[in-house]
Amino acid sequence: METANTQRPMRHNPKRFFHKKKFCRFCTDSNLKIDYKHPEILNNFVTERGKIMPRRITGNCAGHQRELAVAIKRARAIAIMPFVAAEGR
Q1: Is 71 contained in some domain?
Q2: Taking a C-beta distance cutoff of 8 angstroms, is the pair 84, 49 a contact?
Q3: Residue 68's pLDDT is what?
Q4: How far, in Å, CA of 89 to CA of 86, rounded?
Q5: What does DSSP assign to residue 52?
Q6: The predicted structure's pLDDT at residue 17
Q7: Average pLDDT of the chain to the nearest whole number
Q8: What's the structural domain count of the chain?
Q9: Is the pTM of this model over 0.85?
Q10: Are 49 and 19 in contact, with CB atoms under 8 Å apart?
Q11: In a domain, 20, yes or no
Q12: Cα separation, 34 vs 29, whole angstroms
């Protein structure tokens, strides 16, 4: 039986994993604008099932993520973008 003071061996080397810093696509490229009339840009931030991707995955800053969510919702409301993905059978 193990005592409470025994330490477990480390599973991973902490120096081994390096996460690349994600940059906001809209902050780095000033020519790229968020507009509900351009679904080809908005589709990059929506999953194949139709859900808006979170900030931690896309790398957007907070302000641009809010603008992006509003633009996607507007495009859905006026039927430029679908609310859900088409059912593939």
Answers
A1: yes
A2: yes
A3: 97
A4: 10
A5: B
A6: 65
A7: 86
A8: 1
A9: no
A10: no
A11: no
A12: 11
Does any domain span residue 39? yes
| Tokens (6 digits) for 8 | 């477990």
- Please report whether residue 1 resides in a domain: no
- Give the contacts of 22 (CB within 8 A, at least 6 positions apart): 58, 59
CATH number at residue 71: 4.10.640.10
Q: What is the DSSP letter of 39?
A: H
d(CA 52, CA 67): 12
| 36 close to 75: Cβ distance less than 8 angstroms | yes
Terminal CA-CA length for the chain: 55
Supply the range of the domain harboring residue 45.
Answer: 25-77
Residues in the chain, overall count: 89
Q: What is the pLDDT of residues 11-53, one digit of tens each?
A: 666 666 666 777 899 999 999 999 999 999 999 999 999 999 9
Distance CA 28, CA 32 (A): 9
